[in-house]
Design goal:
Number of helices: 12
Helix content: 10-25%
Number of strands: 32
CATH topology of one domain: Rossmann fold
Length: 550
């Protein structure tokens, strides 16, 4: 018997692409494949993988002429999040396709297979490519930028974007704001090379220059492009960039530029990465907190944000599922605390801002994402939506748990889903500043049509959050408005994948920044079980390139 394995990827879920095939292994029931596949790994995305196994009967490249032995589905996150980044999955006979609504595999018999029949297992492992450990440290200054403020000069800051395969750009860094100057010198900053260019040294890096405004309507000064390879030359004539405003250039014949930006210094060093900590056993503890205030509307009416339609999930459930389905693979016990806030509880009608959705005060944990959804729906039938919208209690609740284990073995992520304006802003800011010292991150998803100005302030991308004159040690909050991700075509799989990507993108760097600040090094990965069949390579990522061995 000769074995051959084919790897197929699905990014986005409904597009299945053949990524590659292993070599053929002759005459064995325990093939040990050698070929490694390199694929991009993104913590914030649900990257679906499918492995098909065949018994090769001839030299024909046409797989339909060979015996189909079975297949396995998983996500890249499942492999990475498993102990030692090693995952064993059962092989099942019968082809599968991906459900266009949920993105999950569903049976569709082909090749004469018997759906559900098991035929052995496949062992997958992943390792990070060395260039993902590189961290670039650089400093920039600017000269003669355009004056944008009527009563002053400008308050400039830089925004860095990496280019994607599809031609779009993703923000990867913002500098601090330099007040009232046209010749700013920004502070030195560090950024992982994978975040800057995804390991591709010639990939375009776009840099935009803005004048900061308090109301968030920052004035565009201009932009320029470069690459990692150019930046790596360090301070030189090649790294003095003209800042160009395309609109001004079109309107003014004598337009030259809107100033220049100069690279002052550039250095690269290798550091521990997010995957080093995950492979060493760091668990991500996921907690969700749901807004039960009256501004959501009566759950029994279709206009309510909490309305449970028999045909589709509401905004709360969609956001929870999108984020939870990715983060769940980094928590081995799959038990997730779920809290509610802003409701009157039976039997006495007291208002609570950190009540367990499962009703168990001693243990608010639910089994898996489905368990959270079940507890959420159950709470809607028993509590009375009330108010106000207080965040501080749930932030403090998770911070209290995070404070009990600070050795690097656990990291907490709190997802808050809310529809309203924060009622306890001062207390929430204080709670976040205190939590910034702990192994913890906070994600906020705003649902509905309310103004979310306060959420943007908590996000701290432009100005680091502070309380009583004390700055947060780290930026640990990421906010997005749900309405920005509503797909008019009704394709929730794609729109929620974008939402999850944007709210989770900062988690790896936030985790590493905590570990680095505390001087915590990754633990060595656990050894593979001695009795397991031999492993062999067959899969791997590059944004954080991994080798996945099959």
């Amino acid at each position: 018997m000769m074995w051959k394995c084919e790897l197929k990827t699905s990014f986005p879920p409904q597009a299945v692409l053949v990524f590659g095939r292993t070599e053929v292994i002759d005459n064995t029931l325990n093939p040990d494949f050698v070929r490694k596949f390199i694929v991009d790994y993104f913590f914030e995305e649900k990257q679906n993988l499918r492995f098909d196994l065949y018994d090769v009967d001839s030299k024909s490249p046409d797989l339909s002429k060979h015996d189909f032995l079975g297949q396995a589905f998983c996500t890249l996150g499942e492999i990475v999040g498993s102990s030692g980044s090693r995952l064993e999955k059962p092989l099942t006979i019968g082809a599968f396709s991906l459900n266009s609504r949920t993105g999950k595999p569903m049976p569709a018999v082909s090749n004469g297979g018997v759906p559900g029949k098991k035929c052995g297992s496949i062992i997958l492992s992943a390792e990070e490519l060395s260039n993902c450990r590189d961290v670039a440290t650089m400093q920039f200054c600017a000269n003669k930028l355009d004056k944008k403020d009527f009563f002053g000069k400008s308050d400039p800051f830089l925004v860095f974007y990496r280019s994607n395969e599809d031609g779009t750009f993703t923000i990867c860094h913002k500098t601090e704001v330099m007040k009232n100057t046209l010749n700013p010198v920004w502070q030195t900053f560090s950024i992982p090379v994978r975040a800057l260019c995804n390991g591709d040294y010639d990939r375009t890096i776009k840099v935009e220059v803005y004048d900061w405004d308090r109301d968030g309507s920052h004035d565009f000064i201009g932009e320029f492009t470069t690459s990692y390879r150019e930046l790596a030359r360090g301070q030189s004539q090649f790294n003095i960039y003209e800042v160009i405003n395309p609109k001004k250039k079109m309107k003014k014949k004598k337009y030259v530029n809107s100033g220049t930006v100069t690279l002052l210094s550039f250095a690269v060093e290798s550091e521990s990465t997010f995957l080093d900590y995950i492979k060493g056993g760091t668990q991500i503890n996921f907690t969700v907190a749901i807004d039960f205030t009256a501004s959501n509307g009566n759950p029994s009416q279709s206009t309510s944000l909490h309305y449970m339609s028999p045909y589709q999930l509401n905004a709360y459930a969609l956001a929870l599922t999108a984020v939870g389905e990715i983060i769940q693979h980094y928590d081995s016990d799959k038990m997730f605390p779920a809290l509610g806030f802003g409701a009157k509880l039976p039997p006495d009608g007291r208002v609570s801002h950190e009540f367990p959705l499962n009703g168990n005060q001693e243990n608010p944990s639910c089994c898996g994402i489905d368990g959270i959804l079940e507890a959420y729906h159950s709470s809607l039938r028993t509590v009375q939506l009330y108010g106000p919208t207080n965040f501080a209690p749930v932030v403090t609740h998770v911070a209290r748990n995070a404070a009990t284990v600070q050795d690097g073995s656990q990291y907490s992520v709190l997802l808050i889903i809310t529809d309203g304006v924060i009622s306890d802003m001062a207390q929430t800011k204080e709670a976040i500043v205190n939590a910034a010292k702990l192994p913890m991150s906070i994600i906020i998803v705003g649902v509905g049509q309310a103004e979310f100005d306060a959420m943007v302030e908590l996000d701290g991308d432009d100005v680091r959050i502070s309380s009583r004159g004390k700055l947060a040690e780290r930026d640990i909050v990421q906010f997005v408005p749900f309405r920005d991700y509503v797909d008019r075509t009704g394709n929730h799989v794609l729109s929620m994948a974008r939402l999850a990507r944007d709210v989770l993108a900062e988690i790896p760097d936030q985790l590493v920044s905590y570990m680095k600040a505390q001087g915590i090094r990754p633990r060595p990965p656990p050894a593979a079980p001695a009795q397991s069949p031999p492993q062999s390579p067959a899969h791997s990522p590059p944004g954080s390139p991994l080798h996945t061995n099959i």
